[in-house]
């Protein structure tokens, strides 16, 4: 594979994520990164583990990257392939008595800084199960892309995964400015004079990531799917999950929750169409839909409101305009964008981040002869809003991960919120 | 517009939304199998609203109506008349 530096420009969303990455690192040294956990029934033989992961790392087109600016001022990646295996791979055999201890360990690994690398892998063996952990830098991969890459790597193919070019996109300025105008108007209408619900910051000197995880059984998942269809409609499970999360947050008795007239939630959406998956593996192909929900509404009203806003934002091509106008932001250094974000976020506009990856792109049923039991995503939430509710579904299992900074929610509070969401999903009205 | 023309129009739109060949869209293939998600479904709703003046997002149309091209075309014709 021939690398041409000009082929690996940042798109606008990559650049915004890069700004979040810098801000996150200021808090905890851990950037805007995520971890996918592949739960296996069985384990890879001890003597084969090192060879398996060496081959896997060798199949990645790059492992390190630094950011440069081209003469046209667009930022691009300068990639490196060299790596130190001992830094990028760790093998653990912890002895845990309870699942909770295992989860805490997996979560602690998800917040391990990548130290300049773009990927890092762990293999964890615990009793009859084992777990493959891939941590990745969100500047280079989004959740869908990461599943495609991991699926490919774990298939132990003989071929290296390829990274398609991403151009500088220094054209169609009029359209980008028009998108910017649309988004400015949209955001102004969203952030009017209402006070919004948010989690205020606690005064803790050492900010750390904290989180809670819940995997629903196939029976519970079936119930949630059924309730989703009954309450929100066919293929509208994401709306139902968000409505239940909103309900749980409203009823959640946190020490530092500040109640307001409305709740604003940014939701990540994947912008790839089906035939693009193989081409658009790397970089971020996501955008946003932003919902504003009156805090007095019940779950049925919330669903109605979410569906109507969803329709209106699709009609208004808001996801396209977000993606398009973010291209303009690349001219600003990440530090400057960070300062602008600080100003916007000082008003605490958002309650929490939300995403739902429904039966993603991880297609393998077996890895190294072991059956794949579940796939979990553990993203570190951006510094603002500092609380994230992330759902993933793998085959017949729904997974929920609540990610937060301890300055926003304590460890116990993330567990409480997780239970409240579970209750709203299974019993909420 | 008769049933066949309606189905062809839906297939063409779904092909654009999902980025798959029109030939691969069978009348009875379920939308979920084709890879439709909530975003693409709402994009299809917008197309139906713009072209047939039927609002499906807030309707009480059942899951069965959205199974495939056949059932969706029937549903549109039923709601139009």
Question: Would you give an account of this structure?
Answer:
- The complex is a heterodimer of chains A (429) and B (81).
- Chain A has helices spanning 12-28, 46-58, 85-88, 99-110, 143-154, 173-190, 218-231, 237-251, 299-315, 318-326, 334-345, 411-427; strands spanning 33-41, 64-69, 75-80, 89-92, 119-126, 129-137, 198-199, 209-215, 257-258, 262-270, 286-294, 353-358, 366-367, 370-377, 387-394, 397-405.
- Chain A has 429 residues and is α+β, with helices and mostly antiparallel strands.
- Chain A has a six-stranded mixed beta sheet with strand order 4-5-6-1-14-13, sandwiched between helices. A four-stranded mixed beta sheet of chain A has the order 8-16-15-12, sandwiched between helices. In chain A, strands 2-3 form a two-stranded antiparallel ribbon.
- In chain A, helix 6 (173-190) crosses helix 10 (318-326) and helix 8 packs across helix 9.
- The N and C termini of chain A lie far apart (55 Å).
- Chain B has four helices and no strands.
- The longest helix of chain B has 16 residues, at 3-18.
- The interface between A and B is medium-sized, with 23 and 22 residues.
